[in-house]
Amino acid sequence: MNKVESTFRNMVLTLFIVTLVASSALGFVYALTKEPIEAARLAKRTRAITDVLPEYNNNPLEDSYKLAADGDTLYFYPGTMNGELVGTAVETFTTQGFSGEIKLMVGLLPDGTINDISVLEHKETPGLGDKMDKKKSDFSLQFQGKDPMDFTISVTQDGGNVQAITASTVSSRAFCDAVIRAYNAYMEGGKQ
Amino acid sequence: MTQWKNFTKGFFKENAVFVLFLGLCPTLGVTNSAINGMGMGLATTFVLVGSNLVVSLIRHWIPDKVRIPTFIVVIASFVTIVELSMQAYLPDLFDELGLFIPLIVVNCLILGRAEAFASRHNLASAIVDGLGMGLGFTMALVLLGGVREILGSGSIFGLKFINGDGILLFVLAPGAFIALGYMIVLINKINKKSA
Predict the structure, then answer these.
(1) Chain A residues whose beta carbon lies within 8 Å of the beta carbon of residue B32
(2) Domain annotation covers residue B98
(3) Chain B residues contacting A, CB < 8 Å?
(4) Mean of the pLDDT values across residues A104-129?
(5) Other CB atoms closer than 10 Å to residue A68's CB: what's the count?
(6) How many other CB atoms sit within 10 Å of the CB of residue B116?
(7) Sorting pLDDT into bands at 50, 70 and 90, what band is B195?
(8) Is A119 left (phi over 0), alpha (psi -120 to 50) or beta?
(9) Binary contact (B80, A29; C-beta < 8 A)
(10) Nearest CA of chain A to the CA of B143: how many Å?
(11) CA atoms of B183 and B31, how far apart (whole Å)
């Protein structure tokens, strides 16, 4: 079978048909996966909120609100039990990580006490800074049940009460920075 | 060439990573654990088989001068399909591989097979070639990921067998180069013997 000749008409026609078929195939796949992708994203967020809050029975995603902080946005997800506030999950961030931004979900009780913290996103060094993740070490457990009023959220090297991760003081500092940001925003008008 | 030979050449004789040195960016980037290597390898295999299939099917209707743009469109479509499906059904794996999935488009292995093989052979050979090359690539990534995970984290496929950390160097970027270098030496030795 002879190859089609590379005339202008043939080339334009071929590229047109190929891109047309490709784009309709992609449109089809996009429509097919749109909802599962959204669902997966929501499920991840809900899991992070459930992780750091006491038991609740509302939908924190629906009741969420946001505040501007340090050039970015903090998201608040209040959890209520039969209409009464049991805690607020704050999606917070820091830009002071060892390699880029770190995102945390901090669960605060109505009086500002830290209930629990989970890591949403980070790019810290494997084996060192990534120990901030609860799955890797107990570092983040020391924040549980602490009230930042009498538990200074900064590493011991800086005069605070937080035991830094060995060999990862920068990551630990960044972690504290994110937690403080969540706490301050919550106490200064983030509580609703 | 029998189909069996056509299939197995991707594993040793013409292994994409160890012999042809194609697709090294994802190879070095994602292989900090065996499971990541496998995810990346299988995603690439899917794209490779898909693009080989389509390219072989349409090879008689593509004018020579626009064949490369056509191949790229075909490959990019399959990559986007993989990206969307992975995001939808395997979100955890997608978080790990994230950036490297769109980069499959520029993996020379895929364009190389489309140009050098699929556009010159019939449908069956092209699919077998895609499968062999893709699974060979997957094998290389799982091997490299496995070695790095065993040495670096003391685990395999996420199962810990030592407490604490391993040799952290192997989880980091330099470990990828070191491990790959030694594995290439080994494979070359095996290939020389069997040749």
Answers:
(1) 126
(2) yes
(3) 32, 58, 60-66, 69-70, 73-74, 76-77, 80-81, 84-85, 87-89, 91, 152-153, 165, 168, 171-172
(4) 86
(5) 9
(6) 11
(7) low
(8) beta
(9) yes
(10) 20
(11) 13
Rg from Cα positions in chain A:
23
ipTM of the complex: 0.77
Rounding to the nearest 10 degrees, give the CA dihedral for residues A177, A178, A182, A184. Answer: 10
Cβ within 8 Å, pair B168-A1: no
Contact A137, A165 (CB under 8 A): yes
Residue A22, chain B, CB below 8 Å: the answer is: yes
Q: At what angle do helices B67-89 and B34-58 cross, to 10 degrees?
A: 140
CA distance A19 to chain B (A): 7
Cβ-Cβ contacts under 8 Å, A99 against chain B: none
Q: Do A127 and B81 touch (CB under 8 A)?
A: no
Write out the residue range of the structural domain in which residue B15 sits.
3-190
- Residues forming a β-bridge with A67: A74
**Nearest by CB to A127, which of B77, B87, B171?**
B171
Distance CA(A127)–CA(A176), nearest Å, equals 19
H or E element at residue A158: none
Confidence label for A192 from pLDDT (cuts 50, 70 and 90): low
Does a structural domain hold residue B195?
no
How large a percentage of chain A has pLDDT more than 90?
20
- The tokens for A155 are 């590493």
Contact A26 B85 (CB under 8 A): no
Comparing A136 with B112, which gets the higher pLDDT? B112
Judge whether B56 lies within some domain.
yes
Q: Does residue B69 belong to any structural domain of this protein?
A: yes
In chain A, what are the domain boundaries? 52-190
Burial class (CB in 10 A: 0-12, 13-18, 19+), A134: middle
The model carries a pTM of: 0.79
Q: Judged by CB atoms within 8 Å, which residues 134-163 of A form the interface with B?
A: none
Contact A127 B152 (CB under 8 A): yes
- pLDDT tens for each residue of B23-52: 888 888 888 888 889 999 999 999 999 999
| Count of domains forming chain B | 1
